[in-house]
Amino acid sequence: MENKPFKYNSITKEKDLDVLIEEIGDARVVMLGEASHGTSEYYTWRTAISRRLIQEKGYNFVAVEGDWPECYAVNRFIKGYQNSGSKIADVLQVYRRWPTWMWANWEVAALVEWMRDFNHLKNGSEKAGFYGLDVYSLWESLEQVLKFLENNDGQAAEAAKMAINCFEPFNRDPQTYARATAFVPTDCENEVIEMLQRIQQHRSFTDDPEHDFNTNQNALVAVNAEKYYRAMVRGGAGSWNVRDSHMMETLDRLLELHGPEAKGIVWEHNTHIGDASFTDMADDGMFNIGQLARENYGRDNVKLVGFGTYQGSVIAGRAWGAPMQKMDVPPAAEGSWERMLHEISTDDKIILSKDLREVPELKKRIGHRAIGVVYDPKYEMYGNYVPTIIPDRYDAFIYFDETEAVHPLHMKTRGGKEPDLYPWNF
Length: 426
Hints:
Elements lengths: L8 E2 L7 H7 L4 E4 L7 H18 L3 E7 H11 L9 H4 L14 H14 L9 E6 L3 H13 L3 H14 L6 H10 L5 H12 L8 H26 L3 H20 L6 E4 L2 H4 L15 H9 L4 E15 L8 E5 L7 H8 L4 E4 L13 E4 L15 E4 L1 H4 L2 E8 L23
Parallel strand pairs: 2-5, 2-6, 3-4, 3-5, 6-11
Antiparallel strand pairs: 1-8, 6-7, 8-11, 9-10
Helix pairs in contact: 2-5, 6-7, 6-10, 7-9, 8-10, 9-10, 10-11
């Protein structure tokens, strides 16, 4: 448009990503966001970006807002580990915790297939990895630790058994555990810390550094998950900060695992990767992995890319644990970032933050849409917009005027066909 208030680049094909790839430069970490956990375009374009970063710039791994044990199973598959599965759709069934659609979907299947093909002719250290950054998998991680230690270190296995026994009375329900420890001055903190310390006393258990890393990481997840669930019942910013601190610690560990020149790609919601210090989250004492990465590695070494849409459809649930549904996403609210982009033009676009610095409306906080796994379009105006200073929260932003819902593996497609979602076939 002739009257557009700032520069942007239309995006319709993979070649249009050139401007973003150039902006990323030699950054050590690239974080790719999403404005919901259930929008197809966010997944397919993040795949297209990740593919180019891995192929052209040598990025070593993709780390996502998913649980470590399940994502490590996918990592084994894409690297061709023995007995790691043969069919992508079967491997992705490992995602059984609600919301299953976040990673058990056909868009992720396309990413996994590409990564497996990319890795096929690579040597071990050259293979691109896929890992989970999240902290929810308390019981699954404990069980994996115990299973490994029983075959490798009987003494450390006893520490793992003690930790599991401590949690047993709570019926594998973290909320039950959290409520119980809120009123009784006993918890399982010492048990999981003892288990982690026993494991860390060993430099290695096997001749496979990644396999040993997996055991250590599961123990760390158990420690931080216990801390997260205790913080959760107290409310406030505590549990959020425990979670994002764990994500940052895991990212640090993954970069260290892959060597001093390692580079990583992160896939998480905008609320995690967009620097929280430039939103109202900071008013509540919250921080996130995007903010921590900038502080730890320096702004030049971290590129934060937000995603958003004006309208469309999304997969979400009406309440926590509710069945997944395809829901309409209404036109963005008046005065919001997404409405502004729609009124400028209906083009899908890439916007670099350096081109927004002098836009007066963007030097203050404006509403920026955020849809979680729990969503009700009728109440969107009451909590789905995060006041944000856009040019500072992100280094770049990718906008789609209309989007469609992600395609879950567990949801029937029309005619029973698998959708054509390969992102390199624009």
